[in-house]
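Protocol check, entry for the methods section draft. Step 1: assemble the input record (protein sequence plus ligand SMILES). Step 2: submit for complex structure prediction. Step 3: store the structure tokens unaltered in the notebook. Ligand used here: magnesium ion. Step 1 record:
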Amino acid sequence: MAQASTSNGFKPVTSWKVWLGVVPFFLFAILFLLLPSFRLLTASFSAPDGSFTFNNIIQLFTEPLIVNSYKLSIQISAVTALGGGIFGFLLAYSVTVGGLPKPLRSVLITFSGVASNFAGVPLAFAFVATLGRQGFITAVLKNTFNLNVYDAGFNLYSFAGLSLVYMYFQFPLMVLIMAPALDGLKKEWREAAENLGANTTQYWLKIAMPVLLPSILGAMILLFGNAFGAYATAYALTGGRIGLVTIQIGAQIRGDVLYNPGLGYAMAVGMVLIMGISLGGYSWLQAKTERWLK
Amino acid sequence: MTHLALSGISKHFGDFTAVRDFNLDVKKGEFVSFLGPSGCGKTTTLRMIAGFEIPSSGMISLEGADITDKAPNQRNVGMVFQSYALFPNMTVAQNIGFGLQVRKEKESAIKDRVKEMLSIIHMEDKANSFPYQLSGGQMQRVALARALAIRPEVLLLDEPLSALDAKIRVSLRAEIRSIQQKLGITAIYVTHDQEEALSLSDRIVVMNVGEMEQVGTPFEIYNFPTTRFVANFVGSLNTAEAEIVDPNKGTLIMDGARLESSGELKGRNKGDKIMIAIRPERLSFLSEGKKENVLDGKVENITFLGSVVRVDVTIGGRKFSMDTFNRPSLELPKIGETCKVTCSDKAVLILKE
Ligand SMILES: Nc1ncnc2c1ncn2[C@@H]1O[C@H](COP(=O)(O)OP(=O)(O)O)[C@@H](O)[C@H]1O
Ligand SMILES: [Mg+2]
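Step 3, stored output:
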């Protein structure tokens, strides 16, 4: 049969033609991934006068402002990945396994698709307009329930406030990743477990959770990276007051604090590393589940 | 000696009736197949035995105890799914041991049982493999071992072979039967494949649109189908209309030709129109001296099917197929020639409808 098809005109493609198809990919990778990374790396070893130096890298671990910015970024990323992750998981659960009506599911998925990309100035503005000092919800709470959230300690422009804003694009991303994973739980697994004598708790502990765990962890890692790389939202909401890594990098490059682009580049390298590790972890976990669920 | 009894079981989904008035007594150690086309309610009936569906009416009892409303995890009934349904996060050994583990059996007891089951399915070397590393046939054997590990009262199998290739299907089918006989376990096997049902079962329940058509041994179902549906679904069959000439002697007339039948004509009258059926292999060309059941025909087509030759003959405007064993000495008429075809009175089956 195979021979018949070759003589029918399906000639094997010669080797150079095979490679032709992947040229755009490699071109893209070189232009937009390898070259910038290389530039970033070399620049982070350059002093302002252009000479070679380890100073920027050393400062990364010694300069309190910078160490602190990494701490802050890791904190906000971890908190919002966990919070958004749990909330997003519960939402995804309720529209898949939980058996909420079908239309609700498509509404949630569409909303999540939009909201997970809602960031930057518009997002910051939306929150200022609703939960800011003069915001709509703040006013409603004050006027109708006599509850002043700002007197009660809430502040939109604080770490907690910023976390809340981040959550708004974090949980939809979790919904988008977890809904298909939850759909992947086969009805037969539950029935087989029940048939063998397991109760619902045993099913969740021994089968559903272990099967979902790589997806959940992978998704949370992705959420972590998602928050770590965010810049515009934080900048628009708080100016420079919450010194996240991205904000410090911006400051270094614009020259707001110390004009040292080399230091900015070094920070960016640190950030690329953290993002790279996150993505690596995500793909590793993803591959694990795909193998299971194939 | 009834082990599992289904009495007057019906199942409705809204206005739709998936199963209607199903009655069956299964003996301990018996292998019963539910055979029927897709959508006839086989799976639904099986799922009611497993407890995944609750009957709309009727009662299911196991060892004399009413289990109609019992939860699936309280029944001790093993189930094998068409899609294997192995737990992907567990090794073969963990899958097999799962039922005992959730029953909080001792580790050592679980280990022994897993070992025993692995040896029954001849997969000792795969104990630590994950399902994704196995072939379809291996997965289904593990699923079988997992269902058997809990020592269930009844083993339920829902088209367990239909996702496998033809060759494995035949070998695994024999393996399932031999394991079932060795363990002496009661088994209910759902299939739409008549060959599977005929080769495996002690008894077959033929189902059609939610109802039982006929219950009997493979021999009875194949040789003495009582309804037109069973006759057509199990094996291939020639069916024709005939008129009763003498209900006591079993004399019929079909398209002007006289036929004798030893089939049941009790309660029918002279002049009644009935359906008859004749298996292709029961028809033969006329040998010397026979006077009864001789039909005039014309050869339309001859097909070699390996060990069998199928000859299509028109008799009184109706097409009949006849099968003859293929042997070197076989003499066949030519296409277009007239011929005389005959069969014994036992071969002329009277169908209920
Ligand atoms: N949960 C259900 N809800 C509605 N209809 C169902 C359900 N389960 C089965 N049916 C219907 O009942 C009929 C019998 O189904 P099933 O028992 O699966 O058939 P089989 O196994 O013989 O192919 C089918 O028409 C099917 O669509
Ligand atoms: Mg079915």
